[in-house]
Structure formats: structure tokens, C-alpha cells
Write a structure and sequence with these properties.
Layout: H1 2-25, H2 30-74, E1 75-79, E2 87-91, E3 98-101, E4 108-111
Antiparallel strand pairs: 1-2, 3-4
Helix pairs in contact: 1-2
Length: about 140
């Protein structure tokens, strides 16, 4: 615990004293340099953490979008039976019961899968009617 704390504080102290020495070499106040050094290090750390959080949030969103894309192959768009009728995409497995928690109301919902059959029809090859020729009545 103390070692972790020292590893975090030691660079701050060393950096601040280096800024103080730099200020002193230019003829400025040593303690002003320490204060500026601390402020710059905190600003750099704050910027680094915010950029890192933004990158992680973007990667998480990308992973979530990929997961939703994969669910669309093996998933189903279902409506919660509560009064809100919220629509969720849930993964479907045929070898077990399918349950999910509604993202709107938080209730556990069971998904019942019903199989149906239908006759497959094929489209007609050609729908064009042949042209009818009407004989000329005056040629008779």
C-alpha cells in the first residue's frame, strides 16, 4: 500500500522540483515553479484520463454494436408484455429456456418460441401474355 502510494507521489514530487529548478534557472521564484509543475502535471493527468475514458467508451460501444449484430443472427426482436411494450433484441437458444430481463421495466420475461410450417411457392417464370392477333374483317 505504501509502495503504491510512493510510486504515485514520487513522480509528482520529482516533476514539481524539476519545474521549480527550471523556474529558478530563469531567475523566477522556485516555489512558483513547483506550483506550476503541479498544475501542469494534474492538467496532463486529467487530459490523459479523459481521453482514455473516451477511447474505452468508444471501444465498448463498438463491442456492444458487434454483439447486437451477432444477436440479430441468432436473436429475436420481442416486446415486453408490460404496459410499456418495450422492444428488446434477445438471443435465442433452442436447447434451453429463453429468459431475459426487460431493459425498461426490469422484469424477467420468458420467450416462447412457436414453430410454424408453410408451403413454399415458386414465382412464375414469365408473366407476359402473348400478343393476340385480330384478323382483319375487311379481308373476308
Amino acid at each position: 500500500m505504501i509502495q503504491t502510494l510512493l510510486k504515485q507521489i514520487l513522480p509528482l514530487i520529482i516533476g514539481s522540483f524539476l519545474f521549480g529548478a527550471l523556474f529558478l534557472s530563469f531567475g523566477l521564484n522556485f516555489f512558483l515553479g513547483i506550483g506550476v509543475g503541479i498544475a501542469i502535471q494534474y492538467a496532463a493527468y486529467y487530459t490523459f484520463v479523459n481521453v482514455l475514458n473516451a477511447v474505452v467508451a468508444l471501444k465498448n460501444k463498438k463491442l456492444e454494436n458487434e454483439r447486437i449484430k451477432e444477436f440479430s443472427y441468432q436473436g429475436l426482436e420481442v416486446k415486453c408484455p408490460c404496459f410499456k411494450q418495450h422492444i428488446d433484441i434477445v438471443p435465442i437458444r433452442l436447447n434451453t429456456s429463453n429468459y431475459y430481463k426487460c431493459s425498461e421495466c426490469g422484469k424477467s420475461v420468458s420467450v416462447i418460441i412457436n414453430a410454424e410450417t408453410a408451403v413454399v411457392t415458386e414465382p412464375l417464370v414469365s408473366t407476359d401474355l402473348p400478343k393476340l392477333t385480330i384478323p382483319n374483317a375487311t379481308n373476308t
